[in-house]
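ping. complex inputs:
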Amino acid sequence: MSADFLLELRSEEIPARMQAKARADLARLFAEALQAAGLTTEGIETYSTPRRLVLIARGLPEATEAVSEELKGPRANAPEQALAGFLKKTGLSREQLEERDGVLFAKIEKPGRGASEVLAEAIESIVRNFPWPKSMRWGSGNLRWVRPLHGIVALLGEEIVPVEVDGVAAGAATVGHRFHHPGIITIGSCADYAEKLRACHVIVDHEEREAIIREGAAAAAKAAGLSLVEDEGLVVENAGLTENPVPLLGRFDPEFLDVPREVIVLTMRTNQKYFACTDDTGALAPAFICTANIDAKDGGEAIVEGNRRVLAARLSDARFFWEQDLKVPLEELLPKIDQMLFYEGMGSLRAKAERIAKLSKAICEKWFPERDPETAYRAGLLAKTDLASGMVGEFPELQGIMGGYYAERAGEKAGVVSALNQQYQQAVEGCIPVCVALADRIDTLASFFAKSIKPTGSKDPFALRRAALAIVQTILTNGTRLSLREAFGLAEAKADVNELMGFIADRLKVQQREAGVRHDLIDAVFALGGEDDLVRLLARVNALQGFVETGEGTNLLSGYKRAANILKKEQWDAAAAGGTDVPAEEQALVAALDAAEPKAKAAVEAEDFTAAMAALALLREPIDAFFDKVTVNDPHKETRARRLNLLARFRDAVHQVADFSKIEG
Amino acid sequence: MNALVRLWRFGQSRCNADNGEYLVPLSFQDLILTLHHYWSERGCLIVQPYDMEMGAGTFHPATVLRALGPDAWKAAYVQPCRRPTDGRYGENPNRLGHYYQYQVVLKPSPADLQQLYLGSLDAIGIDPLKHDIRFVEDDWESPTLGAWGLGWEVWCDGMEVTQFTYFQQVGGFECKPVTGELTYGLERLAMYIQGKDNVFDLAFNNEGVTYGDVFMDNEQQMSAWNFETANTDALFDLFKKAAAEAENCLTAKLPIPAYEQAIKASHIFNTLQARGVISVAERQAYIGRVRDLAKGACGAWMDAKGYAA
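pong. complex structure:
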């Protein structure tokens, strides 16, 4: 007969952010323990509330299978010591051994172990070794758990699994909701567990609580004629903070709506864990939705009122910062950011801003000639000033966004406002924002690389990979045409540009992998050396990928590799050639190259890389025929030289588009 | 709390004889007295505030030093706290440069510490079936004391009213057994139960005296001193002298005087911060200096009491 197993580990409140991993760890550790003991299960489920971590394992057998194994021992005539050692190891006597062909064998019967015994061991080991991100001791004990552990329910079928960990004994008793039903509940088996707790105001299944919050919050907003601003992170967090979630809508004073929306939403979200609502125009509504943990006597009136007052205090604080900040134009914050260090040896934030401004202006002049370079300069100069504002001091996440608001209020140009607002995004849009975002990241990369501070392995404390990726994404999103080498050359810090380009190429490969672009093809185009315009580079790569994945491309690639291998083996550099014996296939290849070379060249110049590939495709048949019929290694020295020169010419023609030697396959 | 006890304590005009509900919310001073009664009845020593300037109730030796070593300890007290940078000249309804914490320490932390705490909320008139009480993760760390612990901030209808911590280390030493620490923000709690949006409007007593009547002058003048007037040269000098005196006491194996000098240095540092004369780079060095002194005092206390580290 198989039985289901229930485990509840009840503690003081488990941090919401740790619950998902704790469920996964519990399932994994339990499965490993069963497997090690040879106990099977039909399935493991896990649940969590702030006060419980729960596991249900279905269909456990009563015991593990009995195992009989045979151990080979010493020969029957072996010395006494050898026999004694074997008897000690097996725990048997001489009479119990079996002799076959002069060798002794021990038959060891391992009886099946009761499931309950296996489970008791598993529970103790799991509790003692649980990988909480942070754990603690309490009282006078030595046990560690995320917060004090108070109870263990362990029921196999309807039987208690007898186990005790540091004074916490397993049983059938648990408690209900902290306030609605603080008393003891006795659980019969896993069959009545969830329902008994539900009757005591505890919803064990976190997904059910999440659904209640998600739907309840949406319904509360709708009932007030508003729409919920959906936020799945908040749903999960609130489900991790409640056993009996009750979404409640409250309102705040509309006067606070003068404060930027991002500030209000951030305060509500991070400080209070409230959902925001919008009205039918999509504007932020003066309302919030909190998630209570009780069915309040008064329907939640006092709870909503209390939360409203807390929010009002927070929003007053935020409005205070907003109003104070508006009194000081961003420009006047420059002396303040001069007191803030960017990085040891790289100057203050003001010095950084001045470098951004100059570089942003230079980028604008060179690659956006139709735009006003002074706007690019101004945007760069003001970019970091909001870091000295009161609001960003209070809410660092709002850097840039606040700068945009303050610039707008100060009557700065739209390009400046947009550049400030977007500067920390991975891909900004618009010319001036592009100038500033690129200038900022180029300066950062050049400054750190010039000091030989680079990411290693998983360590990237200054987020330089992220900066490089932002360059890639900003350029590709906007189709910005610029020479990155030249742009790095304009930076004040002088770093090795080849190294920086390699660093950018690595980010490009990672970024393009998701789009299905082959990294070897990116290498093949980068290997040409001159290509540092990422837009053109990707167009080349895409055309190349389209080509090499056709039959024609594959054949040309193998022809190329054969030619390249011969040339490499010969370490061929070109030599005087001659001879009169020119077979038809050789003539045909010469003719094909004469035709293909100018076509490919023109197409590359026109940036029509598909046409360039088509021109190369013309070489496919002649090169195949050449290898088929013509012997390169001709006994006549001059003929041989002529043919090797021809192969070199073929290789170089292909290199106009990409370095095919980097292509895999 | 029992309805009869409340009735006996506050009379029929202030609480309902049938269910003990407060008809008039507790004044600031009655809030303190009620907590004193509650924790006194649960075996705590009611010790008095420490007579030195400090930034938090935790700094009181009744918490820091008593959290060390194996001896059981239960105490509760009010501690005035000074945070010069939080002063707002009395103009902000929620911020004060000087306020009160109610501190409870229980060692070893009892298994029913959460229940005991919730009982204290009930005693001051917070009904957990009407108000949403929540334990929200908040780990505590004091770099100046070399101390840390795990616990929560306790929310009442979204307002943080208490810091609840299980000490794991103090002065760099493992806490064995563990001390449970409850720190109530008295002004916030009073604002909550009295329904006041401005701390200066709190009823201090039941005779019409407000918190502002008692403390407005103090906030105004202390803000002006902390932010504008304090003689920073003298303060830098005082910091050095306090630190040197702490070293002197450590050499003389006098942990309590050494600890007092460390607290003194810590407060002078806070005042210098408010005056804006300590740079970001220097800040860590000052904190490190105070931490070394506090750790030294904790170690000397362990030695003096014969506790094994």
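Strands of chain B lie at 45-46, 73-82, 98-107, 133-137, 140-142, 147-156, 159-170, 173-174, 180-185.
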